[in-house]
Structure formats: C-alpha cells, structure tokens
Amino acid sequence: MASAEEARVPTAIPPPTPPVTKFKIALCQLAVTSDKEKNIAHARQAIEDAAGKGARLILLPEIWNSPYSNDSFPVYAEDIDAGGDASPSTAMLSELSRTLKVTIVGGSIPERSGDRLYNTCCVFDTDGKLIAKHRKIHLFDIDIPGKMTFKESKTLTAGETPTIIDTDVGRIGIGICYDIQFQELAAIYASRGAHLLCYPGAFNMTTGPLHWELMQRARAADFQNIGCYSVHILSLNAAI
What are phi and psi of 136, to 5 degrees? Predict the structure, then answer.
C-alpha cells in the first residue's frame, strides 16, 4: 500500500519529448450572448482567425455557448456523446479542428448526460477526433455578503477524473476555471509528465482580480517546468 504522500502525489513520470518546441497558442476571448447560434458563429470566426494567424493550439473560454447562469445551463446543455445535431457546439469544433488542422481545447459548454448536467471541456485533435472530455471537478460555490452569491452545484454535477492527453503540440493537463485553485490537480498533471496546463475560465469581476493571475503564478511556481495557460470571458482580459 502506498504511503499517504505517495497517494496524494503519484510517482513522477518523465515527460515525453515534445513533438514541437515552438508554436503559436491562441486564446479566444468571446462575448457571450443569449443567442446560441450567434455564440457558435462567433466562436467559429475566432478559431478561423486564429488559425489564419498561424496558431496550432486554440483555446476557447468556459461556457462560451451559453450565458453563465444556473437558469441557462439546462436550456443550453448538449448531449456531447450523441454528437451531431444533439451537440452543435462540439460538431463545429470537430469540423474546424479537422479542416484547419489545429488542436482545439474547446473551453467548456454545459453537457447533458442522462439526468445530470456537467461543465465540460472537449479537446479535439487535428483529425477532428474528440480525444478528451474533462468535466469540471471543483464546482464554484461562493457567497460574498453584499457582493455576490453563486452556486454551480445547484444545477451542475462535479466531475471525478483528472484529464491529461497527448496532442500534436505536447502533453496537456486540463482543468476548468475553479479547478486552478487546487494544487493537487496540477500536481497529478506534473507527475504524469504534462508539458502544459490549460484552464479555460470565466472568472467574475469580484474574485477574478483577486485570484486569477495569482493562481496562475502559483501553479507555474509549483511546477516550474510547466507552462500555465488560461483563457476566460466576461470583463477580464485573456491572460497567459
């Protein structure tokens, strides 16, 4: 039986040699509306523009096809596993990753699976294949008196599995927004040989200025051989 420390931080695996040593990453900042078709079209244009400028890895924000509210999540949710018309957002990402020959970390969308809803990030390879699906593990429940109250757990179910995937640009560990607050998840990715951590996010203007850059710097300092990239929406600018 492993010791408590070994169980918390698995034995490190040396990262594989990166398939490329220099490439462009695009972080797509999107203003979300209540019109889902417009949101999808906007994301499509942003991806095409990024690929046209030479990006090989393209990231979208958290919940980019829907307003960020518990009322909206059930309405805008898609059945990702069913695909096709049941998931127009991921169908678009699959099409563009294949035709543009880029790797896409597709931010996140509300996912319907049976009677549950998840906040889910899909990763597509350059053949348009869905190669990873990360469900947000740490749901954002917050109550700041006089400022804001929001509880994702009212409608969303937490994911249970870390997600690390080999891509054409390297081994990537995926988190979503509030996942970045938890050092243990990043430790797992570092120990599994990740070259890059990606955290699509939608931090608000109450906690965002306090935490977002600080958390990125903390994760990068924790594991100094890892780049820590993020993209988020609302009023904050995309940041690296």
Answer: -50, 125
Is 136 catalytic? The answer is yes
What is the pLDDT at residue 12?
A: 66
List pLDDT tens digits, range 74-111.
999 999 999 999 999 999 999 999 999 999 999 999 99
Residue 68 CB partners (closer than 8 Å, separation 6+):
32, 62, 202, 233, 234
Please indicate whether residue 38 is annotated as part of the active site. no
Is 129 an active-site residue?
Answer: no
Q: Which one is catalytic: 78, 121, 122, 136?
A: 136
pLDDT digits (tens, 9 = 90+) for 48-58: 999 999 999 99
d(CA 77, CA 55): 28
At 204, the pLDDT band (50, 70, 90 cuts) reads: low
- The catalytically annotated residue of 28, 121, 122, 177 is 177
Residue 132 has pLDDT above 80, yes or no: yes
* DSSP E strand boundaries for 51-140: 55-59, 103-105, 109-113, 116-124, 130-135
Contact at 8 Å (CB) between 158 and 175? no
Tokens 């988020």 sit at which residue?
232
How many Å apart are CA 211 and CA 192, to the nearest integer? 26
Q: How far apart are CA 92 and CA 83, in angstroms?
A: 10
The one-letter amino acid at 115: D
Encoding tokens for residue 98?
Answer: 């294949």
What residue has token string 């518990």?
70
Rounded to two decimals, what is the model's pTM?
Answer: 0.84
